[in-house]
Design goal:
Elements: H1 13-22, E1 24-27, E2 31-37, E3 44-48, H2 57-73, E4 82-88, H3 96-120
Parallel strand pairs: 3-4
Antiparallel strand pairs: 1-2, 2-4
Helix pairs in contact: 2-3
This protein binds two RNA strands through helix 1 and helix 2.
RNA sequence: GGAGUGGGUGGGGUGAUCGCUCACGACGCCUCGUGGCUUUUGGCCCCGGGGCGACGGGGGAGGAAAGUCCGGGCUUCACAGGGCGGGAUGGUCGAUAACGUCGACCGGCCGUGAGGUUAGGGAAAGUGCAACAGAGAGUAGACCGCCGAACGGUCACGCCCCUCGGGGCUGACGCGUGGUAAGGGUGAAACGGUGCGGUAAGAGCGCACCAGCGGCCGGGGUGACCCGGUCGGCUCGGUAAACCCCAUCCGAAGCUAGACCAAACAGGGUGCAUGGUCGGGCGGCGCCGUGAGGUGAUCGCUCAACCGCGAAGUGGCCCGCUUCGCUAUCGACAUCCGGGUAGGUCGCUCGAGGCGACGGGCAACCGUCGUCCCAGACAAAUGGUCACCGGCGACGUUUUUUCAAACGUCGUCACAGAACCCGGCUUAUAAACCCACUCCCGAU
RNA sequence: CGGGGCGUGGCGCAGCCUGGUAGCGCGACUGGUUUGGGACCAGUAGGUCGCAGGUUCGAAUCCUGUCGCCCCGA
């Protein structure tokens, strides 16, 4: 049962800036993913950010829904204990299949990068 | 059949499944409060509030939700009033909560027509503007042309007079002064048009008709205005989306409005003041005097002069007014500067509401009755997948003389996302469909 | 939610208030100079003034609407 309710989301503006400033990131043709460990070890929290440059309100809403749905479907395949912030790659043209394929792999790459950073510290 | 005008509908559908969000219902757990019981720290019960979890059956984007161009509701602040300034609007009547919106009508312009379009008050209140061209651009003007009536000049081998210097008459010239606005030419625009008279030539200079303007009268219309008559001077140009004038309207800011709770931080400045001085008048009070009266760092009112006239508000300015204040200090308060916070609850969706019927009105719209409840998020909910159906397009196969039809595969189905709520305007928009009307051609 | 600005040759700007001629620099092209290039000199071309209406005799300029871009404030 893959749900996605309010507790699974990143809501506060401070959290967003902390994750983007302080974590690791990875990207491919479609998505840019920022990652930072949270305290919980098991849960994954998602934040979505869509710049105005992306397009009209309809286009931005579509991206957000696609990313959210991709997160919900692929929850088992994501690394745990992380807060992740996802945004569309600049100028990328998306569809749901591409996003659903891209999100888990990009998130795992970002998580590995975060591990290396923490070990080197 | 062709061409066109005006307006409207519409915004893919059904099902399965996994999710999101909101309120409701019943359940479990946690917690808070009043009360009760048992009272040993404590435990139990009733009622109410809050939170979390899972369940059930429901609601869940638009005609433009958009742009934010107008107008309102609502909220907070301000407000006795007046003047100046600023902004908006601009035919009439109506509709409306209101509007810069809508309806009907009037006038202008465009179109053969259905219709379209129109910031459409004032230019005899004033100021300004009009490049180039042209003679001249505003109570204008004489370049070419026309004229030779008037004044001057020149000429005459024309006539007359004479004091022999000359003078006058007549004619010519068009040289100067001048007349002319008909014709040419310039321009977007040059102070009406046609005809006759008139004149040196001309001219509204005069007359007739026409156009325009203005006054008056009659008729129609609520009105804008229309129709008819009559008179007048004969003509008085354009531009106000140039300044301006006139009429009407307009307090400001916005749901981060605004109210409350929690958390956090760092305070500081200003005001808290009020009328003063001198003089006159009137009255009170104290003292003096038997009394008229006199006198006073005294009180109140009032007059004149001079100085002064705080802060805030009154949208900017001014007058005026209002509020605060009355010994000092502190506090409170007001205001300004600075600092902290970006969490929660309310506002928050039932409304100038939708739909239907009837009635009133040409219509915009209004009234009555019935009926319905239709999103409330806050890093912000309506999405993902699959199947079938529908519209459109391409290709293939089959049927068919052709038009076309059937089946299959693939593609495609717009513009666009609520954020306090309404009324409009504007802009975007794939098909598909409907209604009314006009013109032309053909047939009957 | 509130406020402000911009749109003119290929690029960067002026002209707009106060209507009539669209100008400047860089760049482009042609010719000269040079052995050749650069620099320099001379000349040439190139603009629906974002778009659509309106006012006016006449609009880049005035008015209205509209489209796009940028920047502030809360």
């Amino acid at each position: 049962m893959n749900r996605f309710s309010k507790r699974d989301r990143i809501v506060r503006g401070d959290d967003f800036t902390a994750i983007i400033r302080g974590g690791a990131f990875a990207a491919d043709d479609v998505l840019v993913v920022n990652v930072r460990s949270n305290d919980s070890e098991t849960s994954v929290r998602l934040g979505i950010t869509i710049p105005k440059k992306t397009g009209s309100a309809v286009v931005r809403n579509r991206w957000k829904r696609w990313i959210r749905e991709a997160f919900r479907i692929n929850r088992d395949r994501l690394p745990t204990g992380l807060d992740i912030v996802v945004r569309p790659k600049r100028d990328a043209v998306g569809n749901f299949a591409k996003i659903a394929k891209s999100l888990p792999s990009t998130a795992r790459r970002a998580a590995r990068k975060l591990d290396r950073q923490e070990q080197s510290d």
